[in-house]
Amino acid sequence: MDLDDRQNGFAQHEPPEPKSPVGSPADQGQTAAEGASMDVDDDAPEPDEPRMILTNGPSVGVQSDKVTELGPETSVLTVPQGNVLHTAWSPTDPLLLAVAGDALCRIWTVTKSSDAPQNRPSPNYQYVDILEQGDESSVTAMSWSPDGEILALATRTDDTDQAGEVSLWSKHGKSRDNLTATQDMLITFRWNPSGTHLLGITSSGAGSSALTVWDIQSSQAIPAFHLDQIATDAAWYDDHKFLVCGHSLVAECFVDPHNNLSFQNHAVPESDHNRNWTYARYDPATQTAAIAAEDSATLAVLSPNGQYLTTTAHDAVITDVAFEPIPNPPLHLPTSPRRLATSSLDGNICVWDTFTLSMLHSLHFGHPSPPMAIRFTPDGHLLAAANGNRVLYWIAATGGMPKAVWHRDPTPTLSGTGFGNRGEDRNGGVFMDGDSGIGEEDETATHSLSWDVDGRRLAYGLGSQVILIALETLFRKRTRELIGYTKISIIGLRPQPKQEAFSNPPTPAPS
After folding, report:
1. Which residues touch 505 (CB under 8 Å, ≥6 apart)?
2. CA-CA distances (angstroms) from residue 2 to 5, 7, 18, 216, 282?
3. Is 475 exposed, middle or buried (0-12, 13-18, 19+ CB in 10 A)?
4. 107, 125 in Cβ contact below 8 A?
5. pTM above 0.85, yes or no
6. pLDDT for 233-264, tens place per residue?
7. Other Cβ atoms closer than 10 A to 57
8. Phi then psi for 85, rounded to 5 degrees?
9. Radius of gyration of the chain from its Cα atoms, rounded to whole angstroms
10. Distance from chain centroid for Cα 290
């Protein structure tokens, strides 16, 4: 793929390959992925280090090519029946994990990684089941409120006239409210930033859809806005305005103080009028929205000043889109870079400059199992990409080699679950093209990926299981060695010269 040949005049340039530090596996004729696994011993004594003095020097990046294997830090949650379609950590509590799917909705209280049993298929975590025993409803949408106090569920059963039943639950699994149901199946929930309104997108299955907004305080639904197009996704700009996209659809909607919903088509170039836009994302720091059409691999950015940028982002279908989060928006500078990531069936994750849509990094995930879902950690430091076989982690700002890997072992090791540690060394656990030994990715499967609020644990729904991958190794005492990137912005370090040893004390100068 020649990135300089992309359309729309966006010249893409790959950053130079990072050099391996002296003594790394690459210096010994190995790639980083072929190096030995890293052993962490927190109790080992620190080696003697030379005394350092500070000198002015340039900013430098210290890059490490070692890949950390995360198999030993994995737990598996198994549900008795059903298929996991949704996983979502509470946005405020790192212990609460909601999981939902076919005949399934459960809130787990997941202990900290350091206290939890590892490498076990069924840790003894406490949980609350939302659906009653024997309830065969399918959860079609699930979302936590921004404060983490409410879990919104949309369920569907085959024996009711109402295809979209909506209920609100407390974080402890107690029923709070039942909202007005919808005639069609709900496919997406989106909370506004303050949690006062909940947006739902419904699909009739016959080429039409509707937008429904509930006022949480009154438990009433604003009259639905019906569309002749298929709406697929939405993103709130603020508490009263949101972007919606779909098949030949890009529009902005407004909820006025009297809870009336208005609709206005967004101006897009004529060449993009008939695209099937699948993803809508919003970055509050720059007030910029991004939309993507998965089938044509088109990525577009809509800036607050009306500028519209577009590019062909990949050579195959786009599978996910994510803005890099900003942990402290008030401290974000207008000149700071803003990153937007896309994943694709072409086997790559691309990281883009939001302001120019120029490519910053192209991260290779590989074939025949491409990345199906991507998520940034809440602080924006790491970017995780996953499919049914493995999860890779990169440092978002630098790209390069992945810094950590978890993969599904094809040999059943955990009581027949098939999820375990690395048995033999396969390129250090980083499966490259065609060597995973597990087979091609199922493009129709649901891939649900969620970080806890601390960015220390990743939950990944696979079939009837939820894989909990802890990243404690990356946050231990020697984090700088494992994460592999240290920014030294204003200082250079050099050993302080040792003083000469005198056999006899110097003669004092005469008075």
Report:
1. none
2. 6, 11, 20, 50, 29
3. middle
4. no
5. no
6. 999 999 999 999 999 999 999 999 999 999 99
7. 13
8. -110, -25
9. 25
10. 16
